[in-house]
Amino acid sequence: MFMTDTALAQAANAGQLEPPSLERGKELWGKCRACHTLEAQGRNLVGPRLHGVFGKKAGSVPDYRYSEVMKNSKVVWTDQTMDAYLAATQDFMPGNKMYGGLAIAQDRVDLIAWLKQAAAK
Protein backbone atom coordinates (compact mmCIF):
# COMPACT_ATOMS: atom_id res chain seq x y z
CA MET A 1 0.00 0.00 0.00
CA PHE A 2 1.69 3.16 -1.19
CA MET A 3 -0.07 6.29 0.07
CA THR A 4 0.91 9.84 -0.73
CA ASP A 5 0.29 12.64 1.76
CA THR A 6 -2.74 13.60 -0.33
CA ALA A 7 -4.05 10.03 -0.31
CA LEU A 8 -3.53 9.83 3.45
CA ALA A 9 -5.48 13.06 3.93
CA GLN A 10 -8.25 11.91 1.57
CA ALA A 11 -8.49 8.55 3.36
CA ALA A 12 -8.69 10.32 6.73
CA ASN A 13 -11.34 12.70 5.40
CA ALA A 14 -13.32 9.78 3.97
CA GLY A 15 -13.37 8.17 7.40
CA GLN A 16 -11.04 5.37 6.37
CA LEU A 17 -8.14 6.55 8.52
CA GLU A 18 -7.95 8.78 11.54
CA PRO A 19 -5.43 11.65 11.72
CA PRO A 20 -2.07 10.41 13.05
CA SER A 21 -1.87 9.69 16.77
CA LEU A 22 1.61 10.41 18.08
CA GLU A 23 0.72 8.64 21.32
CA ARG A 24 -0.24 5.48 19.43
CA GLY A 25 2.86 5.83 17.24
CA LYS A 26 5.03 5.87 20.35
CA GLU A 27 3.28 2.74 21.63
CA LEU A 28 3.93 0.99 18.32
CA TRP A 29 7.60 2.03 18.51
CA GLY A 30 7.79 -0.28 21.53
CA LYS A 31 7.83 -3.22 19.10
CA CYS A 32 10.41 -1.58 16.82
CA ARG A 33 12.87 -0.68 19.55
CA ALA A 34 13.60 -4.35 20.16
CA CYS A 35 15.66 -4.15 16.95
CA HIS A 36 16.28 -0.40 16.33
CA THR A 37 17.61 2.64 18.19
CA LEU A 38 16.89 6.32 17.48
CA GLU A 39 19.92 8.09 18.94
CA ALA A 40 22.34 9.81 16.54
CA GLN A 41 25.23 7.78 17.94
CA GLY A 42 23.03 4.83 18.93
CA ARG A 43 24.16 1.29 18.35
CA ASN A 44 22.96 -0.78 15.45
CA LEU A 45 21.08 -3.74 16.88
CA VAL A 46 19.34 -6.48 14.88
CA GLY A 47 18.23 -3.58 12.68
CA PRO A 48 20.03 -0.30 11.92
CA ARG A 49 19.64 2.84 14.04
CA LEU A 50 16.92 5.04 12.60
CA HIS A 51 18.12 8.51 13.61
CA GLY A 52 17.55 10.83 10.65
CA VAL A 53 16.08 8.02 8.55
CA PHE A 54 13.65 10.23 6.59
CA GLY A 55 15.35 11.64 3.51
CA LYS A 56 18.15 9.10 3.79
CA LYS A 57 18.98 6.43 1.21
CA ALA A 58 18.00 2.94 2.31
CA GLY A 59 20.97 0.81 3.33
CA SER A 60 23.23 3.75 4.17
CA VAL A 61 23.76 3.60 7.95
CA PRO A 62 27.49 3.02 8.52
CA ASP A 63 28.61 -0.13 10.28
CA TYR A 64 25.35 -2.02 9.76
CA ARG A 65 25.39 -5.28 7.81
CA TYR A 66 22.56 -4.80 5.35
CA SER A 67 21.25 -7.40 2.94
CA GLU A 68 22.59 -6.97 -0.59
CA VAL A 69 19.15 -5.94 -1.82
CA MET A 70 18.95 -3.14 0.75
CA LYS A 71 22.51 -1.93 0.08
CA ASN A 72 21.87 -1.84 -3.67
CA SER A 73 18.44 -0.25 -3.38
CA LYS A 74 17.72 3.19 -4.82
CA VAL A 75 15.00 3.79 -2.19
CA VAL A 76 15.05 7.03 -0.21
CA TRP A 77 12.97 6.93 2.97
CA THR A 78 9.92 9.21 2.80
CA ASP A 79 6.45 8.88 4.36
CA GLN A 80 5.36 7.07 1.23
CA THR A 81 8.27 4.64 0.90
CA MET A 82 8.20 3.89 4.63
CA ASP A 83 4.45 3.20 4.42
CA ALA A 84 4.90 0.84 1.46
CA TYR A 85 7.83 -0.91 3.14
CA LEU A 86 6.09 -1.39 6.48
CA ALA A 87 2.91 -2.61 4.75
CA ALA A 88 4.71 -5.63 3.27
CA THR A 89 8.47 -5.56 3.70
CA GLN A 90 9.22 -8.57 1.51
CA ASP A 91 6.89 -7.45 -1.28
CA PHE A 92 8.45 -3.99 -1.24
CA MET A 93 12.04 -5.26 -1.16
CA PRO A 94 12.35 -9.05 -1.49
CA GLY A 95 15.32 -10.48 0.37
CA ASN A 96 15.72 -7.75 3.00
CA LYS A 97 16.17 -8.68 6.69
CA MET A 98 13.08 -6.95 8.12
CA TYR A 99 10.19 -8.97 9.53
CA GLY A 100 6.63 -8.69 8.20
CA GLY A 101 5.94 -5.05 9.11
CA LEU A 102 2.57 -3.54 10.04
CA ALA A 103 -0.50 -4.70 8.13
CA ILE A 104 -2.89 -2.11 9.58
CA ALA A 105 -2.75 1.18 7.65
CA GLN A 106 -3.68 3.29 10.70
CA ASP A 107 -0.80 1.75 12.66
CA ARG A 108 1.60 2.76 9.89
CA VAL A 109 0.21 6.31 9.77
CA ASP A 110 0.64 6.64 13.53
CA LEU A 111 4.11 5.10 13.67
CA ILE A 112 5.44 7.12 10.73
CA ALA A 113 4.15 10.40 12.19
CA TRP A 114 5.80 9.64 15.54
CA LEU A 115 9.00 8.31 13.97
CA LYS A 116 9.41 11.44 11.81
CA GLN A 117 9.54 13.55 14.97
CA ALA A 118 11.49 11.17 17.19
CA ALA A 119 14.10 10.20 14.60
CA ALA A 120 14.86 13.85 13.84
CA LYS A 121 15.86 14.76 17.42
UniProtKB/TrEMBL annotation:
<comment type="function">
    <text>Cytochrome c2 is found mainly in purple, non-sulfur, photosynthetic bacteria where it functions as the electron donor to the oxidized bacteriochlorophyll in the photophosphorylation pathway. However, it may also have a role in the respiratory chain and is found in some non-photosynthetic bacteria.</text>
</comment>
<keyword id="KW-0349">Heme</keyword>
<feature type="domain" description="Cytochrome c">
    <location>
        <begin position="20"/>
        <end position="119"/>
    </location>
</feature>
<dbReference type="GO" id="GO:0020037">
    <property type="term" value="F:heme binding"/>
</dbReference>
<dbReference type="InterPro" id="IPR036909">
    <property type="entry name" value="Cyt_c-like_dom_sf"/>
</dbReference>
<dbReference type="InterPro" id="IPR009056">
    <property type="entry name" value="Cyt_c-like_dom"/>
</dbReference>
<dbReference type="GO" id="GO:0009055">
    <property type="term" value="F:electron transfer activity"/>
</dbReference>
<keyword id="KW-0408">Iron</keyword>
<keyword id="KW-0813">Transport</keyword>
<protein>
    <submittedName>
        <fullName>Cytochrome c family protein</fullName>
    </submittedName>
</protein>
<keyword id="KW-0249">Electron transport</keyword>
<dbReference type="GO" id="GO:0015979">
    <property type="term" value="P:photosynthesis"/>
</dbReference>
<dbReference type="InterPro" id="IPR002327">
    <property type="entry name" value="Cyt_c_1A/1B"/>
</dbReference>
<dbReference type="Pfam" id="PF00034">
    <property type="entry name" value="Cytochrom_C"/>
</dbReference>
<keyword id="KW-0479">Metal-binding</keyword>
<dbReference type="GO" id="GO:0046872">
    <property type="term" value="F:metal ion binding"/>
</dbReference>
<keyword id="KW-0602">Photosynthesis</keyword>
